[in-house]
Each structure stands twice: as structure tokens, then as C-alpha cells.
Design a protein that fits this description.
19% strand; alpha/beta; globular; 11 strands; 10 helices; TIM Barrel
Length: 264
Amino acid sequence: MMESPVKKAVSLYGGTVLGSGMPKICVPVVGDNADVFNNNLAAACSEVPDLIELRIDALSRRLSREALLSFLQNAVSIARKVCPVILTDRTTRDGGNGDPAVYPALISHLIDNGCETDLLDVEISAGEQDFARLLQAAKKHRIPVIASWHDFKGTPAAPVLAGIFDTMQTWHADVAKVAVMPQNAADVDCLINAAGAAGSRLSIPVIAISMGALGTRTRLECEYFGSCMTFASAGDASAPGQVSISAARNALLEFHNKINEKKG
């Protein structure tokens, strides 16, 4: 009988651990200008989530690299007074606003010049070579990497999802994240089953999200199928189907208690 892999939880600043305990709540911060971004950052900090994701893709098209670096250093300093930080430049390739053509060079510049993030999101759609380049830059600064993949149009079949999760571990990511758009309830079940299987098969923590209203339960019942993090809003949502952080907290705790009752 095949043995289950030894799980590698990811320990972060302030004692937050991905892949251990209840799923963590991350609040993404977005904004197409500095004022909006800072207002959303203040709102996120006031909710004291487990993590804050700094989504810089709108700003990355408006600011020079040096201006963006200075802005980010201040934002990270503010956010880390509350919790660990994820740095994400979501490109148009994966449903964001960032420019894929400058993505690897921009992220490398930020990481190598003092943007002290606690986690770095890297899209596997960048390709193996650019992924490896960004992974190397992150590792040089001891920054764990979330490998991410998004499909805003549909949900691939289970074997395709399995292959995506497996690729993320093969490429040496620390966390594997997949987000898809369901067209029906069967798509939601497909993502849940694929994530559960990946969680049993892989040695790294898994994040799995079925977006939109149809997929809301994947954001709230994630402990059931082994997803280690959910994303919730404290203002402007960064993806379809995000619930408020208060709703996420209540649902995660309720589901956690139900799971423990069944174990007891």
C-alpha cells in the first residue's frame, strides 16, 4: 500500500502556518490608484485577517518600477503590523490586469530590491522557465512561493486538474493554488474532488477555489476537502464569489466544529 506523503506546512511571520489547523483567511487588497489601494489596505487591516494579499496588478501598469517598489515597501510595512503578506501581480493571462510581458522582470526587481513579502504568488502560466526564475529569486530571500493557476471561463476535467496540481509540486512550489469558474454544480464537485485527491497525494498544502455564486461553498467548507486558505473581502472583492471576512470567519468556525463533533 502506498504511504501518504509527509506534509510540509509553511510557517510564516507572526506564527501563521499554512497546512496546519483551520484554513486561514486571506483578504486581497486591490485598487487602480494609490488612494483607493491604501483605503482598501486600511479596511483589510482593521479586520485583522490571517493574511493580506497585496494585488498590485492595476498599480503595476500605472507606476514606474521604482515608484511601485517604494509604494509596496510602505504597504508591506503597514500590513505586517497585522499579519503576513502575499505579493501578487495577477496578469491578464490569469484574469488580472498585469502585463505578462514584463511580469518576470518586474517581480524579480521587486523581490531583489527590498520588497519584504512573506509569500510570493507565481503563475504557472508564465511557463516553466520564468516560474523557475521567480522561484529562484524568492528562495534567495527565503520567501515561500504559491504556485497559482486560474480559469475564469470554466472548470477542466479531473485529470487536467490533477496534472496542474502535480506540476506545481514538480516545479518545487511551497503551496499549490487552483481557482476555476464552475458552469454547474458538477463542476464544483469536480474541483472539490480534485483538490481532496491532490491534498492526499501531494506533500505541499493546497488551495482550491470554485469561483462565483455556484462555488461559494468551496470558500466556506474548504476544511472538508483540505484546502488550507480561503479569500474574503473587507471592501472591494478581487474575484467573483468572495464573501465578507465576517461571513467567512463564522462559516469556517461552524464547519470546523462540525468536523470535530463527527470525529468525537
